[in-house]
Amino acid sequence: MSDLILHTKSRISGKNADVHIYGNRIEWAREGRGAGWNITAIVLAVFTVCISLIFMRPSFKTQATEVIPASKISSIKTQKDGAVNTKVTVITSGNEIEFRTSHDKAAAIKTALTQLATG
């Protein structure tokens, strides 16, 4: 395993995500829906039809993950995204991932990713 360079929280596709930047890859995992959503879904199912539980199956697990090898990073760009956030876009050979985070963290993320891409 490589050493962790940077860990931060970010927003990817409108959901909170944990982003880990290692010496040879980027890993991110988007969080699932919160417990409040699951409780609401269960209460609504009880008042409607019990069969809806089959389709809604509340879960507390991670909704999406991705691992991006450092060798696949082709470009990194940043763009101001409102008064307090910056959008860091990582372009790879087959994908484009946008991390929305604070201005301070965006600078650290871009520095770390630039070192990965060039190193």
| Helicity range | 25-40%
Element order: H for helix, E for strand: EEEHHEEEEH
Main sheet summary: 4 strands, antiparallel
- Portion in strands: 35-45%
Number of strands: 7
**Taking strands numbered 1, 2, ... along the chain, how are they ordered across the largest sheet?**
1-2-3-4
Radius of gyration: 18 Å
Mean pLDDT, as a whole number?
Answer: 78
Structural summary, described in words:
The chain has 119 residues and is α+β, with helices and mostly antiparallel strands. It contains three helices and seven strands. The strands form two sheets. It has a four-stranded antiparallel beta sheet with strand order 1-2-3-4, with helices on one face. The protein has a three-stranded antiparallel beta sheet with strand order 5-6-7, covered by helices on one side. The chain is globular, with a radius of gyration of 18 Å. The two termini are 17 Å apart. Mean pLDDT is 78; it is low at 49-53.
